[in-house]
Amino acid sequence: MIGEKLYHKKMKNGLNVYVLHKKGYNKKYAVFATHYGSIDNKFVVPGETEPLEVPEGIAHFLEHKLFEEEFGNIFDKFADLGASANAYTNYTYTAYLFSCTSRFEENLNLLLDFVQRPYFTKENVEKEKGIIEQELRMYQDDPHWSVLHNLLQSLYRLHPIRIDIGGTVESIQKIDVETLYKCYETFYHPENMVLFIVGDFDVIRVFELVEKNISKREYKPRGKITRIYPEESKEINQKKVTKRMSVSRPLVNIGFKDNNNGFRGRDLFKKIVTSEILLHMLFGKSSELFWKLYDDDLIDDNFDFDYEGNVDYGFAIIGTPTRDPDKLHAKLLEGIEYYRKKSFEKDDYIRTKNMVTGNYIKGFNSLEFISMLFVGNYFKQINVLDFIEVLGEITFEDVEKRFYELLNPDYHSCSVIEPISTKS
Amino acid sequence: MEKIFTKKVLDNGINVYLLPTDKFKTTNIKVFIYQNLENNLVTKTAFLPFILRRGSFRFPTTQQLMRHLDNLYGASFGTDVLKKGEQHILQFRLDLVNSNFLPDNVNLLEEGLDVLKEMILNPLTENGGFKKEYFEQEKKILMRHIQSLFDNKMQYAIERCFQEMCKGERFSLYKYGRLEDIDELDASELYTYYKDMLLRNPIDIYVTGKLDEEQTYRLIQEKFGFERHSGEKLKPTLIDKDVEKVKEVIEKHEISQGKISLGLRTYTTYGDDDYYALLMASGVLGGGPHSKLFQNVREKASLAYYIFSKVEKFKGVMIISSGIEFKNYKKALDIIKEQLNDVKRGSITEQELEGTRKSIINSLKETADSPGALISFYQDGAIIGKQETIEDFIEKISRVGISDIKRVSEKITLDTIYFLTNKGVEFS
Q: How confident is the model at residue B427 (pLDDT cuts 50, 70, 90)?
């Protein structure tokens, strides 16, 4: 129905390559990603026995440093080829990407080459600390970032999701060449990575190019990486957290800790989509609750919600600027309580499903969106192209069940940013 | 061959731009109503997207509208204002999923146009004015919206820089208006103002996606063919303002990172032949990782995470923006000025020149892959009366040489340095 065809090939050294053909697009886009994110800061290096604990923010630091090569910065090489390159690190994976409208094959080789060619020196590692410090400070001034960071620290007691992806100004000082190489050797192996390519090109040729590039590197099969995460309890860490910042008005994030975890693949996908339908039905712009809060002058169009579901953690967030955080918090809980007593409307459910379908299809206009969606879900063993099928399997009862499971007030926290002073 | 929008004009003077394509999953419609950016109008115009999205006679509550859009498979409707030079533009947007991806191949185009028609031509009113209840709610929301600029410090530092730089010029007005005008907004007066805009001001409708040109034009004529007066011409944007002395503005708040903005006048706009050279100059200076600012401020001196320069093509002003440690203000400023001077002197390497050219051409080609970017590209051309395709644009970028960059850069004049810093930080 979506009219997209996905091609897949597993290379000899274990790399999974996926190609999506988008006819008529000028842009070509490739993402090379590793299943290694900010939460992976304690692990056993294959072949060793003792766990290694690394400084917070090292996955993100490594991402920055891979762009440096013996002969200079890789950005310049992409610029020479007319491409724009970028990378991002999040909780569970790190992705390197480029987009271009010409010389695609050279760019693809460049992407594969630089990610497979670490070059860390004492000097270039030290230099990066100044740049990353400014990146962290930029986020510190962002109220949306701060309110989320504080929320996760409140929802989770031990799980490293409570740590900032970039680490702290202090933690990054501890990063050195040797540890960077250890992390690199552990996580940047084709078996732990994925390559996703999208655009209008000859699919067979693309597979051949990748095969040729990867096979010359003689990777040895690598043992399993043992990732060590602390045992997180069901309980939240704290109910409420408030921080003062230079902002024009208060900002609130209310989070619900999902304690039904351990799924992957299609089961996890179904849980995620069910959660999204649920949140839209309860809090979307078509819901009763949204307009009640709007009429009470507690929210506006900036009101937003999201569900983040991964294998061993999950949470729903409702976020908004508001004139009165306490009142909003109370009214939201009241709204949720209301649905504990009264059942959902079937009409709302059907309408929401139509909307979610449309939103998914619309997303396929953008190569960036498709790539993010694909890679983000890949490491959860989810194929996003199954969306319409999974949506079809979800029933009204699934949504009702999910409501009691996810939006349990016993496991929720409230994070607030308050203005420092009234600013005119 | 590149497909371009065909322009037709309705009997009432509304311009219709259509571009059929099967490339996208959606059909995208945008309606623009143009107004002068003006002290006494800015807040009125800015308020319109807020009140107009609340309801119409067919959808008397916003919730009803939203439910209808859900049923149209998540059609997304939005209203906003844009600022291009000293023009203030009211925008309505509707994105619809194409029939071939939907069950039973339902075609949503006509229903979508009906929604737009309702929201634009039939807004909810009572006693000759916008519905009072919504009007009062949205006044508060606009007020907070204006104040919330402060919450995004990078944007705030850019906007504040232009405000200081263009004091007294219409360009200094924030596109969401002025706080002090909000109290005085009146539901009847504003409705009259809006009706007048519909009758007199220039209006464009853009549609791209899965459509039949003839049929779509007919549908638009049917829905938007209302009677209008002869079109009002908008004022030109003021470009040639001399800089007498460089202004330095320091503003202090409790923050973690300093934000520096430099506002410059280029005296070159999209209408000029030299615009392409200016775009190249700005690209060499701060248009990405290959640029002088990125290389020198970030990579060599390790002073910043982000730094860029950008041109506003209708006013011909340029901004340089970066986030730095408070104490590095002077140091960063020196390096930035040095890079600008290098561009002016034509001290540009082959790599900087070609890297910039390729990067601009790449983003131009990418324009054709996004319905929104495509509409925006052709709209910009239409605003200055230039009929230019993406290929034409690329062709002109291809011909820019260092001597052109030097010539156009010589005119670039620093006007204002704005620094957002922390309370308690002293300057020597």
A: low
pTM of the model: 0.95
Chain A: give the shortest CA distance to residue B153, in Å.
7
pLDDT at residue B233 above 90?
no
Q: Is the pLDDT of residue B428 over 60?
A: no
Interchain pair A134, B24: CB under 8 A: no
Catalytic option among A56, A63, A232, A276: A63
- Predicted pLDDT at A421: 72
Quick one: average pLDDT of A381-388?
Answer: 95
C-alpha–C-alpha distance, residues B397 and B380, integer Å = 17
What confidence category does residue B1 fall into, taking pLDDT thresholds of 50, 70 and 90?
low
Give the model's pLDDT for residue B239.
96
| Tokens standing for residue A118 | 């670490």
Is residue B426 predicted with pLDDT exceeding 80? no
- Please check whether residue B253 touches A, CB under 8 A: yes
3-state secondary structure B286-346: HCCCCCHHHHHHHHHCCCEEEEEEEEECCCCEEEEEEEECHHHHHHHHHHHHHHHHHHHHC
A26 to B304: CB separation less than 8 angstroms, yes or no = no
Interchain contact B141–A (C-beta under 8 A): yes
Res B105: pLDDT: 81
CB pairs under 8 A between A and B: 188
Give the pLDDT confidence score for residue A2 in this predicted structure. 78
Which residues of chain B neighbour A284 with C-beta distances below 8 Å? 66
Chain B residues 172-231 with CB within 8 Å of chain A:
none
Give burial (CB, 10 Å; 0-12/13-18/19+) of A405.
Answer: middle
Question: Cα-Cα-Cα-Cα dihedral of B66, B69, B75, B76, to 10°?
Answer: -20
| A25 contacts B369? CB cut-off 8 A | yes
Residues whose CB falls within 8 Å of the CB of residue A4, separated by 6 or more in sequence, listed in order: A20, A21, A22, A364, A385
A180 close to A120: Cβ distance less than 8 angstroms: yes
Question: Are A195 and A30 spatial neighbours (Cβ–Cβ below 8 Å)?
Answer: yes
- For residue A22, the chain B residue with the least C-alpha distance is B23
Chain A residues with CB-CB distance to B66 below 8 A = 284-286
Q: How far is CA A123 from CA A65, A70, B186, B211, B359, in A?
A: 11, 12, 63, 58, 30
Residue pair B15/B224 in contact by the 8 Å Cβ criterion: no
Do A91 and A38 contact (CB within 8 A), yes or no? Answer: yes
Nearest to A247 among B150, B302, B324 (CB): B150
Nearest to A385 by CA among A19, A49, A11, A54: A19
- How far is Cα B277 from Cα B283, in angstroms, rounded to an integer? 10
Instruction: Kindly determine whether residue A26 and residue B366, on different chains, have CB atoms separated by under 8 Å.
Output: yes
Query: Which among A26, A31, A24, A28 has a CA at the least distance from the CA of A3?
Result: A24
**pLDDT for B299 beyond 60:** yes
Of the partner residues B23, B67, B302, the one whose CB lies closest to the CB of residue A127: B302
Q: How many angstroms separate the CA of residue B31 from the nearest CA in chain A?
A: 20
With contact defined as beta carbons under 8 Å apart, do A228 and A42 qualify? yes
Q: Is A63 a catalytic residue?
A: yes
User: Could you tell me if B349 lies within 8 Å of chain A, comparing CB atoms?
Assistant: no
With an 8 Å Cβ cutoff, is B68 touching chain A?
no
Is pLDDT at A32 greater than 60 in this prediction? yes
Structure tokens at B129: 């004015």
The owner of tokens 């309580």 is A337
Q: CB neighbours of B78 closer than 8 A, spacing ≥ 6?
A: B53, B91, B92, B93, B94
Nearest CA in chain B to A352: B70
A355/B73 CB distance under 8 A: yes
8 Å CB contact of A141 and B354: no
Please state the rounded mean pLDDT for residues B173-195. Answer: 98
Average pLDDT over chain A, rounded to whole?
95
pLDDT single digits (tens) B87-120: 999 999 999 999 989 888 888 999 999 999 999 9
